[in-house]
Write a structure and sequence with these properties.
The chain is α/β, with parallel strands linked by helices. The protein contains 13 helices and 14 strands. The chain starts with a strand and ends with a helix.
């Protein structure tokens, strides 16, 4: 059976694989109506990149659905897409070639240039468990919910799932579902280097360590927020992006990282992840950090018998 490593953990590529949820997941009639985010903070395909950044910052969201004139779902832009565009990956070629490296101009590139068009969505009448199945099988962190004529009515995210399941009986231990040997970076690396690490590895967050001490964590949202606010944005208006992206990641990292023991139950870990602010906790064994447990790991745990 072919295997691949995706975002730090092993996943099956078998086309006949289907999650088999444990008893903590059950579906009630119209359950999604009570779980989804409403209203959805969206943008149009012709909206500029700066509009997407503004929505992410002001609404505290990691992804922005892209809609047409009749509110029909056309695509989605994530914080990772933004980091990719701002220097972390292939989308940066748009800035270099089309805008000649001028970031003020690039901020008005339409969102359709960086949106994902192959959006996996669900119908409002679908069950909660079927939506979870889609999230796991398609490796998505969120599923837009649509109604008639594919008009978007809400969105459900990994965070929503963790919040919904928080406190329920999930007795399996963290050690069995964490990602072992997580990638660490130095807080002294540049924001550009952190962005490239995130995009190339498919990470939304990177823990930061100075010598043997964990000092913080940086996320894609932190980079987007940094770019869209304060002095960084003013420098972008002057096309000083090299200076903006050369700042050490320690300037934007989050401190107060949450640690848990590897023998903690998943049910106890879920609310800690929910309240961490970064969608993850670091896992300790014998005083050493040996893993990371994310919202996605909890989702995957639900699919194991």
């Amino acid at each position: 059976m072919p295997q691949k490593v995706v975002r730090g953990f092993l996943r099956s590529r078998r086309v006949d694989f289907r999650p088999k949820f444990s008893s903590v997941v059950y579906s009630k009639p119209k359950e999604l109506e009570y779980l989804i985010h409403k209203p959805v903070y969206s943008a149009t395909s012709t909206s500029p990149v700066i509009r997407g950044i503004d929505v992410m910052i002001t609404r505290a969201v990691r992804r922005v659905p892209i809609t047409g004139s009749k509110n029909e779902l056309l695509g989605i832009v994530t914080a990772t897409d933004m980091v990719n565009f701002l220097g972390g990956g292939d989308y940066y070629k748009i800035v270099k070639s089309k805008h000649k490296g001028r970031f003020f101009s690039a901020l008005y590139e339409p969102l359709e240039s960086i949106m994902s068009r192959d959006v996996i969505c669900a119908d409002l009448s679908d069950t909660f468990s079927s939506v979870l199945e889609k999230m796991i099988l398609t490796n998505r962190g969120a599923i837009p919910i649509v109604g008639r004529s594919k008009r978007i009515v809400g969105i459900i995210t990994e965070y929503d799932v963790v919040r919904y399941l928080s406190g329920r009986t999930m007795t399996e231990k963290v050690r069995g579902h964490m990602t072992r040997n997580p990638l660490f970076a130095s807080p002294d690396i540049s924001i550009r280097s952190a962005a490239r690490l995130m995009v190339s590895n498919g990470f939304r967050r990177i823990p930061l360590k100075r010598r043997d001490e964990v000092v913080g964590m940086v996320t894609t949202v932190d980079i987007v927020r940094y770019i869209g606010e304060g002095s960084a944005f003013r420098r972008m208006l002057l096309d000083e992006m090299d200076r903006v992206m050369s700042v050490p990641v320690s300037e934007i990292m989050r401190t107060g990282v949450v640690f848990v023991k590897s023998d903690l139950s998943l049910g106890e870990a879920a609310p800690l992840i929910m309240n961490s602010g970064v969608g993850a906790v670091l896992v300790e064994e014998g005083g050493d950090v040996v893993g990371i447990l994310t919202e996605r790991d909890l989702l995957t745990a639900l699919a194991i018998e």
